[in-house]
Amino acid sequence: MMTFDHLERLAQEWSDLIPSTWPQEGTVALLRTSRSLFAHSWYDYEFMVVAALVGFQALEAAFHFLFPDMASEAPFRRMVDRARSDGILEPKFVDLAGRAVELRNLLSHPKGAAAFTVGMAGQMLEQTHRLTALVVATGLSRASG
Q1: Where are the alpha helices (DSSP H) in the chain?
Q2: Predicted confidence (pLDDT) per residue in 39-68, tens digit
Q3: In 3D, which of 143, 140, 142, 117 has the Cα closest to residue 28?
Q4: Which residues are CB-neighbours of 24 under 8 A, at least 6 positions away?
Q5: Average pLDDT over all residues of the chain
Q6: Under the phi-then-psi rule, with left for phi > 0, alpha for psi from -120 to 50, and beta for the rest, what region is 110?
Q7: Which among 76, 84, 72 has a CA at the least distance from the CA of 57?
């Protein structure tokens, strides 16, 4: 049976994908919020969708970190396209980010209410954490090298 503790443990596993040495504001704070929303969806199921949306926002913030030379209002899609054209990320990761853009846009501009199962939201959040960690690590590597 699914419990708050079970959801919280899942969220903690995603937390472990993010280096603790990274600044705790910005992208990392958004990911922390997404995990909290996921765990608290035990009390309010609609938080599943909000958790996924905040996770996608964290990924977008990571792309802004990766491309500091792009205007702060650069569309998420444009940054993902640049990662593809510049060959910065492997194509499979760019494709995953492209799907995140589509989902983020659907959730940000809804035609109605959305609902996710624990499995759907869990997969989205795990992949968002993994991809965000990769994008930020790539940005850090580019900045130092």
Answers
A1: 4-15, 27-40, 47-66, 76-85, 91-108, 118-144
A2: 999 999 999 999 999 999 999 999 999 999
A3: 140
A4: 32
A5: 94
A6: beta
A7: 76
Tokens standing for residue 82? 């640049």
Q: Is the pLDDT of residue 89 over 80?
A: yes
120, burial (CB in 10 Å: exposed 0-12, middle 13-18, buried 19+): middle
Q: Output the pTM of the full model.
A: 0.94
Amino acid at the residue 70: M
SS3 state of residue 117: coil
Confidence at residue 73, expressed as pLDDT on a 0 to 100 scale: 84
Contact at 8 Å (CB) between 37 and 122?
no
The answer on pLDDT for 1 being more than 90 is no
Rounded to 10 degrees, what is the CA torsion of 60, 61, 67, 70? 80
